[in-house]
Amino acid sequence: MKVRVTVMLKDGVLDPQGKAVEHALHVLDFKNVGDVRIGRVIDLELSESDPARAIVQANEMARALLANLVIEDFAAEVVEE
Amino acid sequence: MKVRVTVMLKDGVLDPQGKAVEHALHVLDFKNVGDVRIGRVIDLELSESDPARAIVQANEMARALLANLVIEDFAAEVVEE
Question: EC number(s) of the enzyme (chains A, B) (predicted)?
Fold first, then answer.
């Protein structure tokens, strides 16, 4: 089962990478872009058949390693049974 | 309208960062993790009210700047009206 963990900076935490992309998009003439925030996704292939248990495990992994909970939020979802 | 662009390495392209995370998860005793792939998400705030047009614009931005089409695939989806 494939589980996707999405990690984003918390609201209010400055995102310099997002600001740089926002600026670059404006330079490229994409004028209707406002705020840009950048995060990461971690796709985990788990040997687990129960979706609920897979999510629980992915959450544990996120808390232990994948996300920095001081400045980041995360969410896990099953993307492929 | 908020559009999320997800950029992942194409299948078959080596993902050393994913391999490192996979190894770290095994060290942390998460034994049922198989393949790990890492990508990024770009959340764009667009001043656009039509979801279809917003997706078209996000795709253009992905092709112009956000993704490296030689080694990466991307997908855009509306996450907030």
Answer: 6.3.5.3
